[in-house]
Amino acid sequence: MSTPVTTASPAAPAGTGGPGKSAPRLRGPRRYSVNRPKRSVLLTVMISLLVIYTVVPLIWLAINATKTQSGLADSSGLWFAHDFALWDNIRDTFTYDDGVFTRWLLNTLLYVVLGAGGATLLAVLGGYALAKFDFPGKRGIFAMVIGAVAVPGTALAVPTFLMFSKMGLTDTPWAVIIPSLVSPFGLYLMWVFATEAIPTELLEAARIDGAGEARTFFTVSLPLLAPGIVTVLLFTTVATWNNYFLPLIMLKDSDWYPLTLGLSVWNSQAETIGGQVIYNLVITGSLLTIVPLIAAFLLLQKYWQSGLAAGSVKE
Predict the structure, then answer these.
(1) What is the pLDDT of residue 5?
(2) Which fold has domain 104-308?
(3) Is the pTM higher than 0.85?
């Protein structure tokens, strides 16, 4: 006589209403995934205000660069005038006063190539050496670099002028180029980046294989430093391109003016007796001045973003 086989129903989980009923959802702290972070209304408002603060002046500049001198006075600042004179303003900007704007543009490029380029080179070499070599006085140099970062450049302008005056370098391009070669923030940034981006084991393997220090730097370390180099180059380029106070106290000959100082001279013409009012050219020149910087940031965006993120994740 066979005994019937019965299938036992699964035991209901604790806290449920019995078999066949789903377990109630446990209440606990709400979790947010990385792809969908928690939204903050306050942070959204602050970022929106920051975007408005940044974008509105650019919009104002782009709109008013399309106006004539009379159109600037007869129209709203955030809307176009009855005539569109952007191309005429650009032509007049480059031809006014025998094309001095082109001269100022070339001077600015000279200061950026030699000043910002040299500052980036020195920052790369110094930051790499401080990050990967041990030598006496390293802590003292670190303290000096941090202290130099905290000192504003305007505080050093007058002592720099007095020193260059005794050397006979004032009113020459070197009075702008040589101070631009010193970038404490760039040196500190490359120091931190080189520490995180270049594994010490990789350098030791290259040295074991017989590579010298120069070859190790150029073939192994330099490609790894590319994002940091681009980041430092952008910072030093913007600082040199927008430099105003140093050329103001160092230069008297307008043939050596950068764009920032030259546009200031054009703007001040309206305040002089018999001076020609050319606000439309000042606005157009300002728009042309910022276009190269915007293009540089857009073209190099992926490099400098990765450079800023270096060291943010601990492995």
Answers:
(1) 45
(2) MetI-like fold (1.10.3720)
(3) no
